Amino acid sequence: MTATDAKAAGRIVPDVPPRNEPAGVSALSIDGVSHSYGPRRALIDINFAVAPASFTALLGLNGAGKSTLFSLVTRLFGIQTGRISIFGHDIGQAPGEALRQLGVVFQPRTLDLDLSVTQNLLYHAALHGIARRDARLRSDEVLTRIGLADRAGSKVRDLSGGQMRRLEIARALLHRPRLLLLDEATVGLDVKARADILTHVRQLVTEQGIGVLWATHLFDEIISSDDLVVLHQGRVLAHGPVGRVVADAGAQDVNTAFMRLTGAAAVSGSATP
């Protein structure tokens, strides 16, 4: 299906700029990244990559360092040690080029509850320098795509928790990024809303070729086709396809593999001081 055919069929097709990066470049590359809050080491020599058009789960308990890592990728925090690049663009040396490729959904809600669904999207589009006419077209597209077209004029405070989260994902996609970061995106949602959000995000990978880094502490949000990064007390304990991580841990499932990996880490003294 061509881009024109896909648009005619009602799918959102990202406006992908000409690619200057070499073949095989990672959507996200984390190389030797460490970060400390004073004497406390939050991240210790983090190394992993997210491939384009793939779903990578970043699995870790609360306090593992997931949110710190997201703050570094999005430049909320400056990088103390190491390098982060997005589609080959170093976020320290070429932040504009890097961040244009990136959409983010943080764990805390950041919507304006007193604005309508569409007004929230248009405000975000303006921050990205998207012309108002184009912004309206994109807003209509993403709302249709996530099933909120009938709530376009509703105030955000009148939406359910799941609808709010879907709106945040739609907002993150307005500028048509090629990499999407989601930090504990299903926290506080019921089982059905969680499943709906996950289904939608996985469709972004398969239908639009977006690379996804999905941070979670919930084992049941991870499936066998995912890539998996196990983050524990600031260290990456395992990284690779789910099946390989599970097999290397001598386990039968992700839950058991995680328990064995994190238990071994504690015994070997790799806990963050």
Describe this structure in words.
With 273 residues, this protein is α/β, with parallel strands linked by helices. Helices cover 35% and strands 23% of the residues. It has helices spanning 3-8, 66-73, 95-99, 117-127, 132-145, 161-172, 191-208, 242-248, 254-267; strands spanning 28-37, 40-50, 55-59, 81-86, 89-90, 102-105, 179-183, 211-216, 227-232, 235-241. The strands form two sheets. Strands 6-7-8-3-9-10 form a six-stranded mixed β-sheet, sandwiched between helices. Strand 4 and strand 5 (89-90) form a beta hairpin. Helix 4 packs across helix 5 (132-145), helix 6 (161-172) packs parallel to helix 7 and helix 8 (242-248) crosses helix 9. The longest helix is centred in the C-terminal third of the chain and has 18 residues, at 191-208.
In summary, what is this structure?
With 273 residues, this protein is an alpha/beta fold. The protein has helices at 3-8, 66-73, 95-99, 117-127, 132-145, 161-172, 191-208, 242-248, 254-267; strands at residues 28-37, 40-50, 55-59, 81-86, 89-90, 102-105, 179-183, 211-216, 227-232, 235-241.
CATH architecture of the largest domain: 3-Layer(aba) Sandwich
- Helix fraction, binned, reads 25-40%
CATH superfamily of the largest domain: P-loop containing nucleotide triphosphate hydrolases
Spatial separation of the terminal alpha carbons: 53 Å
Q: What do the pLDDT scores average to?
A: 88
The backbone outline, from C-alpha atoms, is globular
H and E string: HEEEHEEHEHHHEHEEEHH
Strand arrangement, major sheet: 6-7-8-3-9-10
Strand content: 15-25%
CATH class categorisation of the largest domain: Alpha Beta
Main beta sheet: 6 strands, mixed
According to CATH, the fold-level topology of the largest domain is Rossmann fold
Total count of helical runs of at least 4 residues? 9
| Low-confidence segments | 1-19, 267-273
